[in-house]
Design brief:
- The chain is α+β, with helices and mostly antiparallel strands.
- The strands form 7 sheets. Strands 2-14-17-18-19-20-21-22 form an 8-stranded parallel sheet.
- A hairpin with a 5-residue loop joins strand 9 and strand 10.
- It is globular, with a radius of gyration of 27 Å.
- Bound molecules: alpha-L-arabinofuranose.
- The site of alpha-L-arabinofuranose has 12 residues, from loops.
């Protein structure tokens, strides 16, 4: 019998004893933490994050570029750009492709004018967010065709006021990059960028770009600092990237290909974002992937926030919800080679072919990738046919890299779901997959009822990765879903079960991660933002509580005085662990009931528990409560000292709450 099952049985037996001795609903719940019976180690990767460019999460979000369609490579080459003129200026704007800047950005714009003040205006991503006194770096590749005319660059407010102005000079007859800095005079979330020729002449422009000077770690081509901070504050065990469905693409031709996302930004060829036209109710015709945030930047991000990188690669299958195109089995080699090359890019010596490209980009030291996903949400025997040669080639060369097998989408949302998932689970276990990825987009009641989901799961050797999950308040991917406390609380209940099954479950992550307030396609999301601000949802704080209070070793908890809680019968969901470094016992308790629960907590197997500990409480008045830009901390954890505790003490868990108790121990 595995430890998870043992735990459940202990609870069940004790509950029966308690009920038969007349204690019952009204009695105080007893929580006995068995510090003398440590269980499985909890993997440092237990709580991680999953990033996908959905909801304008990368372009228009985490990637700090403020200009949309900077390289004129959208199918509608002038999308987001409008020709503008001032006074009597008369000019023209043409899209050309002769002698382009690079093969990856074949098009550029030619601006011609007979007088000063003719050019283009860019709308940004639903506007350009600028902060008063902050600096912005404007840059462009340009080629002087005639006149050697400087550019006048301006940030414009909603009532046409000029928020910042700078001049850019010095383009030559061949392509060269020039940059200048603008300082905003006022804060404006929906500014626009105006680029004007300042005299009669002709100029070619490409990669017209505007970045805040302050990016994460002040890197050029960098990331939005406030958004990365949310990720860093989760102290995630890993980062799964770059998707999700965008890995697969609607067609194989629009799948994610990591090699197109490295090197200089102007060498990265743009493709359509799969979420551009996925949901008719949330169309995003201006959603493309520039790959300014590419694999090198993902690896750097992982390093910055201390997360294990977990790239997911296409295995010769386009999204099965869309075209379901397959690479023929005898033409799989390029896909396999991409995977092999990626490991060399990330882990190889700087003298290896792909390691040299990493070093050239500025990182001679390897990134040390330990995990790699083979496909995202695939199903059917066609997946196994591709998974097998993939895994063989990778394991032959890199046996140390743990490979993740996919088991399809949530069984409730795709055709023949449960059968498909069971088929792949069985096959992957037979094939001794290192790790099996499972996804759950369900209603909150399912999460409340499924804290024991993995208790009786077959322990075959393969570990489990809960690679995407989120409680859906209305329905899967419904535009009416809310990031409310009911969903967050239910996820917390489920997460106690993931942790209690730490011998099997080694990783998990909420999905999706980011949502732009005005440009999202999928809700709920963990972190919301607009052009200037951002906030963590109640769900975010649940993730953070579990991640920051993980502990290293599981401690069993014997619970008496309540039946195992469900959606119909609320109660306490409990998990406990020990933090080896701080010598603390961590007790995480989710009270799903509408009233406080007084309980007697006992710690067995330690000589002493210090009288002072720490309590962190995440609670809300109503299940419908949620955070927002206006009230970003409506549901947020409160940390305070915990006094008068010991090896036995009474504690009242607030109604609808997630509580973490940290108890210092001796012996
Ligand atoms: O998280 C949103 C999408 O849900 C992911 O792209 C996909 O893997 C799942 O179907």
């Amino acid at each position: 019998m595995n430890r998870g099952m043992l735990h459940v049985c202990v609870i069940a037996i004790l509950s029966i004893v308690v009920c038969s001795t007349g204690l019952g609903q009204e009695s105080t719940v007893q929580l006995v933490v068995r510090a003398d019976r440590p269980g499985a180690a909890i993997s440092p990767t237990m709580w991680g994050i999953f990033f996908e460019d959905i909801n304008f999460g990368a372009d228009g979000g985490l990637y700090a570029e403020l200009v949309k369609n900077r390289a004129f490579e959208f199918p509608n080459a002038l999308m987001a750009w409008t020709p503008v003129k001032q006074g009597a200026a008369f000019g023209s704007v043409e899209i050309l492709d002769q002698s382009p800047l690079t093969a990856a950005t074949p098009r550029y714009v030619r601006i011609k004018t007979n007088d000063a003040s003719y050019g283009l205006m860019n709308d940004g991503f639903a506007g350009i967010g600028v902060q008063r006194r902050a600096e912005y770096v404007f840059s462009a590749f340009g080629r002087d065709v005639e006149g050697r005319i400087p550019l006048r660059v301006e940030l414009i407010g909603l009532s046409e006021q000029i928020l910042a102005r700078a001049t850019l000079k010095g383009f030559e007859t061949n392509w060269s990059r020039r940059s200048t800095t603008l300082r905003a005079a006022a804060t404006e979330p929906r500014a626009r960028l105006r680029v004007l020729l300042d005299g009669a002449g002709t100029v070619d422009l490409d990669m017209v770009s505007l970045f805040p000077k302050k990016t994460w770690k002040d890197r050029p081509n960098g990331l939005r600092a406030d958004l990365v901070q949310w990720l860093a504050d989760l102290k995630p065990g890993f980062l799964r990237f770059p998707g999700g469905c965008i890995v697969e693409g609607r067609y194989l031709s629009t799948r994610y290909q990591w090699k197109n996302t490295i090197g200089k930004p102007e060498e990265r060829r743009l493709i359509i974002n799969r979420w551009n036209d996925e949901f008719k109710h949330r169309p995003a015709p201006d959603y493309f992937q520039t790959f300014g945030l590419g694999f090198y930047e993902y690896f750097l991000l992982c390093e910055d926030i201390g997360a294990e990188p977990m790239p997911i690669l296409n295995c010769g299958m386009a999204c099965q919800f869309n075209s379901a195109e397959l690479a023929p089995l005898d033409q799989l080699q390029p896909y396999i080679q991409d995977a092999l090359d990626l490991i060399e890019f990330a882990n190889g010596l700087a003298t290896s072919a792909w390691g040299a490209k990493r070093a050239e980009m500025g990182h001679p030291k390897p990134f040390n990738v330990k995990y790699l996903g083979v496909g995202n949400e695939q199903w059917g025997p066609q997946y196994i046919e591709r998974y097998v040669p993939f895994v063989k080639a990778l394991k032959d060369k890199y046996p140390e890299v743990q490979l993740i097998g996919a088991t399809g989408s949530d069984p409730q949302i795709f055709p023949n779901g449960p059968k498909e998932v069971e088929f792949l689970q069985k096959k992957l276990k037979e094939l001794k997959a290192d790790i099996i990825d499972e996804h759950f987009y369900r209603n909150p009641d399912w999460f409340l009822d499924s804290a024991g989901h993995y208790n009786n799961y077959e322990r075959s050797g393969s570990k489990v990765f809960v690679g995407e999950y989120a409680a859906q308040s209305v329905g899967v991917a419904s535009p009416d879903n809310r990031n409310n406390w009911k969903c967050a609380l239910a996820e917390a209940a489920f997460m106690t079960g993931l942790e209690r099954n730490a011998d099997l479950v080694m990783m998990s992550c909420y999905a999706p991660l980011f949502g732009h307030e005005n440009r999202w396609q999928w809700t709920p999301d963990l972190i919301w933002f607009d052009n200037l601000q951002s906030y963590g949802t109640a769900n975010y704080y649940v993730q953070q509580l579990f991640s920051l209070n993980r502990g290293d070793v599981l401690l069993p908890v014997e619970i008496t005085g309540q039946e195992p809680p469900t959606s119909k019968q609320p109660g306490l969901y409990v998990t406990s662990s020990r933090d080896e470094k701080s010598n603390e016992i961590i007790l995480k308790v989710v009270n799903s009931a509408p009233q406080p629960a007084t309980s007697q907590v006992k710690i067995e197997g330690v000589r002493r528990v210090a009288r002072r500990g720490t309590q962190i409480i995440l609670a809300a008045e109503k299940l419908t409560d949620e955070n927002s830009l206006a009230e970003p901390k409506k549901v947020a954890p409160v940390t305070s000292p915990l006094r008068g505790v010991g090896t036995s003490f009474e504690y009242t868990f607030p109604a609808y709450s997630v509580t973490v108790l940290r108890l210092k121990t001796r012996g």
